[in-house]
Amino acid sequence: MTATAAPASPHVMNTYGRLPIAMSHGKGIWVWDTEGRKYLDALGGVAVNTLGHAHPKLVPALQEQIAQLIHCSNYYHVPNQEVLGKKLAELSGLENAFFCSTGLEANECALKLARKFGHDKGIERPEIVVYENAFHGRSIATLSATGNVKVQKGFAPLTEGFIRVPLNDIEALKKATVGNPNVVAVFLETIQGEAGIVPMRWEYLRQVRELCDQQDWLMMIDEVQCGMGRTGKWFAHQWAGIKPDVMPLAKGLGSGVPIGAVVAGPRAANIFQPGNHGSTFGGNPLATRAGVETIRIMEEDGIVENAARVGAYLKQSLEKALAGVPGYVEMRGEGLMLGIALDRSCGDIQWKLAQAGLLVSVQADTVVRLVPPLIITEAECDELIALLLPVLKDFLA
Ligand SMILES: *Cc1c(COP(=O)(O)O)cnc(C)c1O
């Protein structure tokens, strides 16, 4: 079998190049397919399964919530939203949150906040700074903010109002915006995930923060992938000691239950008024319970510290094991958001590793991405490495 499998069914749109396996169930960092084969899940549903699979503390809490109330509309107060909003404000040092269901929706909300922030200041055509190779989602506005022509191809006309700059170059950012009174926000990922685990330098983030303060722009940080403890801090930008004004979250927030959020600081917390934004599913009792319980369990079990410690162990172990191997370039990333950069196309390795019992993804054609559940232990990392190395070395040989 090859990795370029045929569509799963004539009744499912052909939007993914799927591997020819189907997952049946999981436990911890392990999943089993419908044929009974076992895999170490180092992809975690793309940085979603924060607590792994069938977590013994999460499952009963969600069962209780499902039996009590799955959904009600935002015409009423939703207590779980209030609990989760307060918790996210505490952890981030920000103020309040808007709840939605996915990452692109959270980013769409951030873009609307930035535009309204501009309009409230009398700017009729607000512009937002975005980055090369950024990924913010696949709606028309978020794919326009995305810096990947493959994502944009076929969907023109794109949304206007974006200025694109290179990463980690404060002079380029100043030059691209100098004398432009329409700029309202800078929108970035602390560590670009889809682009192949490419970090912003902490010093650069501090420079952007300073510029945003000087210019009265919103600093908006897409932490959809790198947030929620993934890098060994609650939010990756905390490594730089800064705070954003607007922070979209999703992926890991509900440990697999779809939920997104936009967390806002004082400058953005009161931009929206009733009627400006909404979402039918956004913040429903089940989704927000998943967020509340995910954070509770993470705090009880020291999961963020685990991500920092075990992530550093995994990174160092792989650096040591791969040093001098021809074709290996570098390890990138922080905590349990890691990329193994190679000097060549390696798309095929995803299927080779799956056949060996390890789930990963390949990003930007040359980077093997590891984003396992944050509950992974050092011993399990040793198992991960034992599955990975023979296939990777054979591939590079
Ligand atoms: C995955 C991702 C998104 C999009 O999230 P969806 O839930 O797929 O819409 C946006 N930004 C970043 C940084 C992501 O990693």
Automatic annotation (TrEMBL):
UniProt enzyme class: transferase
Positions carrying N6-(pyridoxal phosphate)lysine: K251
Cofactor binding mode and count: Binds 1 pyridoxal phosphate per subunit.
Pathway note: Amine and polyamine biosynthesis; ectoine biosynthesis; L-ectoine from L-aspartate 4-semialdehyde: step 1/3; Amino-acid biosynthesis; L-arginine biosynthesis; N(2)-acetyl-L-ornithine from L-glutamate: step 4/4
Catalytic activity: N(2)-acetyl-L-ornithine + 2-oxoglutarate = N-acetyl-L-glutamate 5-semialdehyde + L-glutamate
A GO term from the CC aspect: cytoplasm
Keywords assigned: Amino-acid biosynthesis, Aminotransferase, Arginine biosynthesis, Cytoplasm, Pyridoxal phosphate, Transferase
Keyword Nuclease among UniProt keywords: no
UniProt-listed InterPro entries: AcOrn/SuccOrn_fam, Aminotrans_3, Aminotrans_3_PPA_site, Class-III_PLP-dep_AT, PyrdxlP-dep_Trfase, PyrdxlP-dep_Trfase_major, PyrdxlP-dep_Trfase_small
Tree of life domain: Bacteria
Swiss-Prot/TrEMBL cofactor(s): pyridoxal 5'-phosphate
Signal peptide stretch: none
Keyword Oxidoreductase recorded: no
GO MF annotations, alphabetized: diaminobutyrate-2-oxoglutarate transaminase activity; identical protein binding; N2-acetyl-L-ornithine:2-oxoglutarate 5-aminotransferase activity; pyridoxal phosphate binding
Binding sites annotated in the UniProt record for N(2)-acetyl-L-ornithine: R138, S279
EC number: 2.6.1.11
Parts of the chain that traverse the membrane: none
PANTHER family xref list: ACETYLORNITHINE AMINOTRANSFERASE, MITOCHONDRIAL (PTHR11986:SF79), AMINOTRANSFERASE CLASS III (PTHR11986)
Further information: May also have succinyldiaminopimelate aminotransferase activity, thus carrying out the corresponding step in lysine biosynthesis.
Homology family: Belongs to the class-III pyridoxal-phosphate-dependent aminotransferase family. ArgD subfamily.
Name of the protein this chain belongs to: Acetylornithine aminotransferase
